[in-house]
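Quick question about two entries, pasted in order.
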Amino acid sequence: MPEYKLGTLRGRYVVQWREGGTRRRYRLFGTHEKESRKEALARLEQFKRESSLKADPTVAELWEAYSKEKTGRRVVDAMKSEWKVMETSFGHIKADKVSTDDCRKHIKQRREAGIKDGTIWTELGHLRTVLNWAKKHDIIRHAPPIERPPKPAPKDRFLTQAECQKLIDAAQTHHIKLAIILLLSTASRITALLELTWDRVDFEQGHINLKVDAEGPRKGRATVPMNAGARAALQHAKTGALSDYVIEWNGQPIKCIKTGFKKACKLAELEGVTPHTLRHTAAVHLAGAGIEMTKISQYLGHSNTSVTEKVYARYAPDHLRQEADILDFTSVRKVTG
């Protein structure tokens, strides 16, 4: 790592270092010296990885560099698994030379292998993310557009109140039951729930903070109130907690609840249900109860209300009711003489 100097410029911290006789300077976001120094070291590590890439890097080299920078994030685990397939289609190609034909060929091969469009859409989305990251950091001059299959329509499956209770009752292990209760009561994404630690469960204030930290992933993460059912389940779990993680097994955090969740669904005789179905279920029930879209959006951690309205407005009891009444031309009208 090159020697660096931390300074200020126009009221902001900056880090400076030399690269081949040329001075480089990077503006930091930190407002205090300690956090700015930490940010500076992270930026220099990033620069070191980027500079190790040769000119005209291949997709394989960028994929590896991106994965190293994002080490620790769950998306990296998914990308490692995806790379076994993506390497065959794109690994050897120069990053800025990826073409629409390359994408279409990948789509065709994956479909022939029986892979659904939703999976292909995600794979190519990660490729686009890597290329855009490289462009943003000036590793490549141009991030070519990545063609993907149409995004599948979201599954409309949600559980009734009776089905929710059947699923909770069918869970055979404490951590699966706790996960189901919290997924329903917090409308959390499964990743956020599995990363939830006890220091972010505030029994005194009655809040559950699903955000890891200011720098961590924020998609679909909010701070939500703790209802009575969630409080009871959490208090019971806390008495036997063996780790910092709320959802644990034998004192170890859990990466996936797929097996236990599938078993509970089978025992409850519920088909087409995934952990994400419970988040959708929570939102549908909120909308059906007439809760304002702005509040549902906050509960789900959506970046803006339009996302919430697009999916859940139709479940609201009065959705387009006034408009429908205006268009009722069969109504008997009062005749005046």
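Here is the second entry:
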Amino acid sequence: MNWADAELLAYGSLLLDNKNVRISGQDVIRGTFSHRHAKLFDANTNQPYSPLNNLSEQQANFNIYNSLLSEFGVLGFEYGYSMASPNTLVVWEAQFGDFSNGAQVIIDQFISSAETKWEKMNGLLVLLPHGYEGQGPEHSSARPQRLLSLCSEDNMVVANLTTPANLFHLIRRQLAWEFRKPCFLLSPKSLLRHPSVISNFDDFTNSQFQEIIDDNVKSKKLIKKLILCTGKFYYDLDEYRQGNNIKDVAIVRIEQLSPFPKSKIEKILNTYSNAKKIIWAQEENQNMGYWSYISSFNLKNIELISRKRSSSPSTGFLKVHLKEQDELIKKIFN
């Protein structure tokens, strides 16, 4: 099952558990990248049909709205809705993660700090499409460094996932917990249709959310270099590794960044006893992305390889992006 299947399956399972689901954002019904199709429209009458509202006569309500172009106003409203209805899964999706800039006040003033300031929990789920794919500086980065700078005292979840099953479990976890935590998911773009981004049925029914995904190398004793990364960049790195038949490098995926699973990471690192080099690899610039946050946890002998420092999240030229990406990946492996 792919990413869109997992997302809709998570919503459907919650509806059958009698939990309401509410989603808003710009072009969320279809999905910005034409992947969700939460409503189908009759070609002759243009009448909408919502499969998720026709699962069972006893199900809860599924509501999805294409919102106006005001990130500040809409995110503020959905935050309040989630506060008033804690047993409803409330989702706000930015058209691109970059656009959450316009709602930063809501994130700083309320979402990240309300539990500390006012002892008010909130289970809002925020989807921020993120990934460096040559679409320019306004369509590449959800600025994860901003989110992670606000993370402390287990105040909120920040995740960058690589499997549909993990998406399914993360969405359901928002309401399965006996408490509520806001969650920011750096959601994918190119991975929506990536042939490797699929999960088996057993991953949904006989598994649970994985904060870290270890590599499935045949022998850890042969590994000389260990790469830690998160999100879509994993598939870029793995494609290069397979294409060049590299056998002495392992790639570990950090799926949940906050709360940071430090003890689990250290436990996995200790299993690679012959690894002489440990790298945090990110496609974001050195002064952006995750490094400032990751380095604050003092993991031993870890170094950064990334794009160079920049005032802009990315280049505006596709050719330059492809050249940078190629050079970055080669630097990580060589």
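Reply: The chain is about 30% helix and 20% strand. The chain has two domains: 3-205, 213-333. Hope that helps.
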